[in-house]
Amino acid sequence: MAKQTSTTDPEERKRLFAEVQRVFGEHVPAIYFAAPRLYMGVSARTLNLAPSVLRPQLLWAVDSIAVTP
Predict the structure, then answer these.
(1) What is the pLDDT of residues 56-68, one digit of tens each?
(2) 46 forms bridges with which residues in the sheet?
(3) 6 in helix, strand or coil?
(4) Per-domain residue ranges for the chain?
(5) DSSP secondary-structure letter at 57?
(6) DSSP strand E in the chain: where?
(7) What is the spatial distance between Cα 31 and Cα 20, in angstroms, rounded to a whole number?
């Protein structure tokens, strides 16, 4: 990856990145999830928050969010 990020030749970058992917696939198996869990901390004073798949996940309905004094 260090070589891939430091070269300026697009074809060389592509070749090096393909090599990185090949090595990763052979030696570092991984499971990817399409929808990772997301945890957000909010104040107990904040009301009417609802999760959304859109970013930012808690501010999709800004007009309904309230804060208690």
Answers:
(1) 777 667 788 889 9
(2) 67
(3) helix
(4) 1-30, 40-69
(5) T
(6) 46-47, 66-67
(7) 17
